Amino acid sequence: MEEQDYKTPKALMAAVVGMGLLIIAGVVILVGVVIHRMNSPQHPAIGTTIPLTDARTAHLALGPEEHLLSMARVRDDLLALHIAGKGQERIMLWNVVTGQIQPGLEAKAP
Questions:
Q1: Which residue spans traverse the membrane (predicted)?
Q2: 92/104 Cα distance (integer angstroms)
Q3: Nearest partner of 19 among 7, 9, 27, judged by Cα
Q4: Are 74 and 80 in contact (CB under 8 A)?
Q5: What is the pLDDT along the chain (110 residues), one digit of tens a residue?
Q6: What are phi and psi of 28, to 5 degrees?
Q7: For residue 105, which of 82, 86, 85 has the smallest C-alpha distance?
Q8: What pLDDT is recorded for position 88?
Q9: What is the pLDDT of residue 65?
Q10: pLDDT, tens digit, for every residue of 59-75?
Q11: In the sheet that 67-75 helps form, which strands lie side by side, from edge to edge?
Q12: Strand 78-85 and strand 88-95: pairing?
């Protein structure tokens, strides 16, 4: 049996060469962008601190074995406090503007 010579179509070769050139161009552009960003002047970060001079102190009465596990912001002026201890957990809501502590959810451990 005679082996047949298989010729790669010219369109396929052109597509492979074109994709190779696109990969090389992309890498060169990526390296150029990284070098440009490294050499550009650094802009100072904008300070977004909020003065807390008008915030009232909240007094949260925790039991002897209770402790604060976490805090999460609910709204701009409302924090949720996760409190645990004595086999139960509860969530209290703290209004930062007024300083009031509101009862939330209570759950006992199984």
A1: 12-35
A2: 5
A3: 27
A4: yes
A5: 567 788 889 999 999 999 999 999 999 999 999 999 999 887 777 666 656 556 566 667 788 888 888 989 888 888 899 988 888 888 888 888 787 888 877 777 66
A6: -65, -45
A7: 82
A8: 85
A9: 87
A10: 677 888 888 889 898 88
A11: 67-75, 78-85, 88-95, 100-108
A12: antiparallel
**Rounded alpha-carbon distances, angstroms, from residue 57 to 13, 29, 33, 86, 96:** 74, 55, 50, 26, 8
Of the CA atoms within 13 Å of residue 56, those in its CB half-sphere come to 13
Residue type, 80: A
Whether the model clears a pTM of 0.70, i.e. scores above it, the answer is no
